[in-house]
Amino acid sequence: MADFLVTEVKDINVDDIHDLVLESEKEGFRFVRRLYDDYVSGENRFDRDGEALFVAHLMDQIVEICGLNQDPYSQISYMGRVRRLYVHPEFRKYGVGSQLVSNVILEAKRFYATLTLRTDNPVADQFYRTIGFSTVHVPDNATHWLSLNPVNE
């Protein structure tokens, strides 16, 4: 398998993620469409302080996407949120999901003490637990959280 290239994008051409939208909808996921619609409308372009949008390319095709936002459900400024992680089904199990979330975590560490997310997908739940997210004492409107400032660091 060829190497994936993970990059942060400042201004994405939404046509480049249209295939991801369609593929995600076939699986019953609505959140990639929401990312697409919010980006087009300007509601969420991942462009405020502490925000970023990452994609993984294989050749010229975007096969994965994941965003970082200020946590919209928290009044606490030190909380970031993982948003809209999606990996095209043909490219799962190659470790690129972990690589993409690692980039999100590295960026989040520049701005936040805590990173949250919400998922109701059991596979995603296991994925996030495996990379260190906790489901104990979770903030409101989240299912997982990660401390970005471990005590022993």
Automatic annotation (TrEMBL):
Domain N-acetyltransferase: 7-151
Domain of life: Bacteria
Gene3D superfamilies, alphabetized: 3.40.630.30
Pfam families, sorted: Acetyltransf_7
Protein's recorded name: N-acetyltransferase domain-containing protein
Organism: Sulfoacidibacillus ferrooxidans
GO molecular function, one term: acyltransferase activity, transferring groups other than amino-acyl groups
